[in-house]
Amino acid sequence: MTKLEVALALAVFALVALLVVLVIVLRRSQLERRAALASRAAALDARERVAELAAGNERIRILREMHDVIAHSLAIMIAQADGGSYVVADQAAAKRALTTIAETGRAALADTRRILGILRHGEPDDPVLAPAGDGRIDDLVAQARAAGVEVSLVRVGESRPLPSGTQMAHYRICQEALTNVMKHAGTGARVTITESWRAEDLALTITDAGGDRGSVVALDGEPLAALGLGLVGMRERAELVGGSCQAGPTEDGYQVRAVLPFRLPGEETE
């Protein structure tokens, strides 16, 4: 083999080797690019799923608020309508009952429209979902009294500002408890709401002594009847802020007990 042939053979071998290397590098680059694209797609998919989950949770939260608003308003309206049938001869009392029904219905309709607006457009700062303080608890008591329920509100200790989620849990638990009284115990029920402001938490007790409650439920044990969404919601609200809620029958009525800590779960102590 001449020197020229050897040189050509080496050149061809080098070109083939270079081509093989280029093919390997290109293939590896393609695989790496595909892996990167797949990883990016997976990350985007994960973010989308997280976003969808968050949106779904937000919708559930909003629908829970809608349930509480509508259930409480309907309980007041039904209580007033039932009571109105006994005061037909008393025009002033009948007028007050009808006025309460109309005002409650308008307020519930307005709240429902605002909540539906949030559900469609995502406006989390709407006042319907805003935290509620002691003043709103007083409003709940006034509404229940207007519906014919005898309510006593007892505050023990010095109240203090609560985190927004805890404020909402406080309000909704009281609201749901009063709603259940009007639905099951009747307008002649006697209710005592006790707020015990302690060093680390708010202990809330709502006790009623009323008429026939029908089916009763114990949140902290096996259900004695079909568990209502409102009662489940009370427990969930308390647990979301690191607290607890139990409910069950007493000798002459029903009692809801909740403990709501001042610090949210995961919040560092000072």
Automatic annotation (TrEMBL):
Residues 58-122 form the Signal transduction histidine kinase subgroup 3 dimerisation and phosphoacceptor domain. The chain crosses the membrane at residues 6-26. The keyword Hydrolase does not apply. Residues 170-262 form the Histidine kinase/HSP90-like ATPase domain. It catalyses: ATP + protein L-histidine = ADP + protein N-phospho-L-histidine. InterPro entries: HATPase_C_sf, HATPase_dom, Sensor_HK_TwoCompSys, Sig_transdc_His_kin_sub3_dim/P. GO terms for molecular function: ATP binding; phosphorelay sensor kinase activity; protein dimerization activity. Its EC number is 2.7.13.3. Pfam families: HATPase_c, HisKA_3. One of its GO terms (cellular component) is membrane. Keywords: ATP-binding, Kinase, Membrane, Nucleotide-binding, Phosphoprotein, Transferase, Transmembrane, Transmembrane helix, Two-component regulatory system. PANTHER family: NITRATE/NITRITE SENSOR PROTEIN NARX-RELATED, NITRATE_NITRITE SENSOR PROTEIN NARQ. This is histidine kinase.
